[in-house]
Amino acid sequence: MSFLAALTPLLALERLPRTGWLVAGVAAPESVAAHSLGTALVVLALGPRVRPALDLDRAVSLAVVHDTPEALLTDLPRAAAELLPPGAKAEAEERAAERLLTPLSPEARARFAEFRAQETREARFVRLCDQLHLGVRWIGYRREGARGLGEFRAGLAALDCAEFPPCAELLAEVLAAAHALDGGLDGEREVRAR
Amino acid sequence: MSFLAALTPLLALERLPRTGWLVAGVAAPESVAAHSLGTALVVLALGPRVRPALDLDRAVSLAVVHDTPEALLTDLPRAAAELLPPGAKAEAEERAAERLLTPLSPEARARFAEFRAQETREARFVRLCDQLHLGVRWIGYRREGARGLGEFRAGLAALDCAEFPPCAELLAEVLAAAHALDGGLDGEREVRAR
Amino acid sequence: MSFLAALTPLLALERLPRTGWLVAGVAAPESVAAHSLGTALVVLALGPRVRPALDLDRAVSLAVVHDTPEALLTDLPRAAAELLPPGAKAEAEERAAERLLTPLSPEARARFAEFRAQETREARFVRLCDQLHLGVRWIGYRREGARGLGEFRAGLAALDCAEFPPCAELLAEVLAAAHALDGGLDGEREVRAR
Amino acid sequence: MSFLAALTPLLALERLPRTGWLVAGVAAPESVAAHSLGTALVVLALGPRVRPALDLDRAVSLAVVHDTPEALLTDLPRAAAELLPPGAKAEAEERAAERLLTPLSPEARARFAEFRAQETREARFVRLCDQLHLGVRWIGYRREGARGLGEFRAGLAALDCAEFPPCAELLAEVLAAAHALDGGLDGEREVRAR
Amino acid sequence: MSFLAALTPLLALERLPRTGWLVAGVAAPESVAAHSLGTALVVLALGPRVRPALDLDRAVSLAVVHDTPEALLTDLPRAAAELLPPGAKAEAEERAAERLLTPLSPEARARFAEFRAQETREARFVRLCDQLHLGVRWIGYRREGARGLGEFRAGLAALDCAEFPPCAELLAEVLAAAHALDGGLDGEREVRAR
Amino acid sequence: MSFLAALTPLLALERLPRTGWLVAGVAAPESVAAHSLGTALVVLALGPRVRPALDLDRAVSLAVVHDTPEALLTDLPRAAAELLPPGAKAEAEERAAERLLTPLSPEARARFAEFRAQETREARFVRLCDQLHLGVRWIGYRREGARGLGEFRAGLAALDCAEFPPCAELLAEVLAAAHALDGGLDGEREVRAR
Questions:
Q1: Any D CB within 8 A of F65 CB
Q2: B28 touches chain F (CB under 8 A)
Q3: D/A touch flag: 3 or more CB pairs below 8 Å
């Protein structure tokens, strides 16, 4: 298969919205591609502070590929995945990754497999960064004026960041910012208070 | 549960895009709600011509509810559904319908169950109308200038409309219009030729 | 006229925004098609509770067609309609319905005529459900963070639901939810309080 | 009334789409405000070439206000206006202008009145420029790939530009560009041929 | 160059968003074209109250052309412009105006030159109206529910309106409206309080 | 500075459109974030085929950060950058990177510096992949129906891929696909011919 034929299906990531936000009432949420890039940036922010040192660039690559199966599967929000039989979503992602990434390169396929297996520290770190990008985005949408996003709090508060203290640090910042917003400090006054 | 609490989750249908078009490159496709309404209008167009007579209004109700589970599940395009284990999507829809429609009314729940069972003529007719709305939309997007939608042809051409001759009639019109567009008759010149 | 030629003009309903929201500052409101579907879902929620029993499915059909003239006329918000000579909007809708629905089917045309005449209980019920969908949407947009929508309250509060107690019930829920939002309970905290 | 209270309702012009394009299948058409600005730019392009000389800046002001009533009325496409009783749209625009422009300034109100009366050369020129912006936009959307816009040709071809030769010149360019596009010269190849 | 070739590049103004809002979190801000029209409307609101009298219509023309270079340059928010070498943005605008407006008409080019030079009272007045439209828009977005826009306050509060008292008046109204919004009076309750 | 405060400004990348497409008439182009992710995917496709072997994951990191300054600067299309004084854009990007990436992590800052310096093979490879993503996107938009994008061809055809043969291969595929589209093979028929 040509490079062009391998890359074209992945363009769908640039159009597909993160549907969890859409269902929750954010009218124009970021695309899956934008979320993946955001996850990679969280990796670059937190990764250098992790001890012992991670392979930072490999973690970035894991972030870049971690949602590529959604180019075929679309973004199933958590509530949707929970309605499927156990393991069904993971199995479908595996098939989609095979179809999308094998033509891209064995290395891309391997990065996704490493992420899925969750056996390396880099893979577990990236999964947390994926959730933490959602946390940063949550604060972002709330500061912009979005309301009614309370359902995302529980998932964030339940994250287990014990293995990676910098993740715990960002999570604490996110929850503190949410608390400030809850307390009636809307984005406007918050900005003035800085 | 209050009426308001039962109706609110269904508002997501008005925001969720029909993702199959999005993946295929239509930048701003219709919402799931708009597609459901469109299906109901196809029912109103073809239904009165079906012999023996259908219960037209009940068929309209089936069309109205047929995609309501997507308020929780989002719209999984066919290629995505095929990556899931067999029956997984139907099972998830069943659970989503239970959660969304039971609080709405037993009648709404019953309409969805009738649609799923595909045992009444009305239910089978509505499933065809669902596909035929996709066909009308396909012609619509192509006449507006969208290209690269060839993959939808096979699914349409394979529809078995034998039970409902008016469905076969609309399908033939759709395929003829597609053929005209293939032949270089773009929407512009077609309009002039009318 | 072919089925396809009759259905194509109605695709505009999927694109036309509900302009009242747009004027009031909701950047991406639902389409006319989505509103019509939403009205049909309100019918399915409240209709089974009405006594004596309504013809529920016929009421759903009335909801499906009730705004189809807007495919030609576009959605004139109330303030716009009031600037037209008395009766002008209704007359134009009548002409648009003639042009759009007669080619669809006599049954579709008859459903619209029944809705317009407001003589059957089903027709009067659907008109209330049309307004109540606006009420549900109003709460929905406000919970998402939209502000400045106070003008919609008066119209809702003035609805006469005496003929249909379930409509009065949903209206009361809508006004109570609005009151909670007024009191500084934004969507965020409301969710936490559930 | 404060300046702010007079200006705020006009912000709706920035959100309201030009619905004629929307109905014809352009998914994201320009706003009414953008069209008004575009009309003013057509005035600035053609006006200096009109003989005897026009009051160019006053013509620009007429263009700026000519569609302001749509902040209340929304943009009724031609097909919609023709379904209203004769004169109904003009009457409604008059009322909307009274409500919107009188609080702005007597001068703004006077500019609109001059445009409506169509008695000065500037007013007649601006009405043509309004139509010609639609013509330029038509070519623009078609070059971008939009199809199915044939219905706009007749209205343009019927424009009477006799009083203003530069308008006739631009109209001829628009129709020639449309003809080139009809002939299979899509925007792509046209660009290469330049 | 033909009129059509001169007008076509300016269509980009209708699509380009005002990026300052986008960066600040307004998901669907007005286009550059809509902002220019809005500036012209502020001119029409305040201009007639300025003493000694301005050439109102010429000021409107200045407003219409003042951002046309952005059709080539795009809208650089203030923070971006400050990262460029001093004078770089103005120089680039000059070049863009030469390329875009000279083919339009010498008059259009002259209006832009007058605006840039900031030597006439009309030019200085329009620059203030440009900023004041941003102020009106700021209140508009905040009343609609946008939050996190506190950064715009400082720029507005620092405007020197001494030369044009009506500008000072509108600015005071904008700041008072912002203050009311800060005080927890969201758009909803504000509307009720009127 | 907190992690959250460092990450928040980068959310703008998810909203900012790639303005070059917007100016050229693509109504809803990808965001800067989506483009950066797309560049990283091109790196993962081509990188493994480069000889001698590149540090693939470091190249992915360079791709992830290469456009981050645009969170402050916005996306200046090539035509805009050429109107600025020589070096002005690069200088501004340097300042923006300093402000945005230094708070993120020294590693993120270093990756950007490496990309800018264009001294390593990875940096030069990523610059080509950046252009090649534009090429893939160009084919994507054209296959979807966009027209009038001929101006992008010259920039692509002029790319010097001599150092990296896989880049030359993808470029050849892109230009061949463009040629096929020029020849009247629109996306529709192409799909059928596969």
A1: no
A2: yes
A3: no
Find out whether B84 and C64 touch, Cβ atoms under 8 Å. no
Note whether D80 contacts C95, CB cutoff 8 Å.
no
Instruction: Name the CA dihedral angle for D105, D109, D115, D117, rounded to a multiple of 10 degrees.
Output: -150
Residue F76 tokens, joined = 């200046």
Contact between C64 and B44 under an 8 Å Cβ cutoff? The reply is yes
End-to-end, the C-alpha distance of chain E in Å comes to 54
Q: What is the pLDDT of residues A32-47, one digit of tens each?
A: 999 999 999 999 999 9
Contacts of A23 in chain B (CB under 8 A): 12, 15-16, 71-72, 74
The CA distance from C89 to C69, in Å, is 11
Phi (first) and psi of residue C31, to 5 degrees:
-80, 165
ipTM over 0.90: yes
- Nearest-Cα distance to chain F for D188, in Å, is 5
pLDDT tens by residue, C71-107:
999 999 999 999 999 999 999 999 999 999 999 999 9
Paired residues of F17 in beta bridges: F31
> Which helix (H) or strand (E) covers residue F23, if one does?
helix F19-24
Tell if the CB–CB gap between F79 and E72 is shorter than 8 Å: yes
pTM score over 0.90: yes
> Chain F contact for D191, CB < 8 A?
yes
Q: Provide the shortest C-alpha distance from residue E34 to chain C (in Å).
A: 15
| H-only helix segments in chain B | 3-7, 19-24, 32-46, 56-65, 70-73, 78-81, 88-101, 106-117, 121-144, 151-157, 165-182, 187-193
C145: contact with B, CB 8 A cutoff? no
Contacts of A186 (CB under 8 A, 6+ apart): A143, A145, E147, E148
From the list A7, A37, A177, which residue is nearest F36 (CB)?
A37
Give the pLDDT confidence of C125-146 residue by residue, as tens digits: 999 999 999 999 999 999 999 9
- 3-class secondary-structure state, position C106: helix
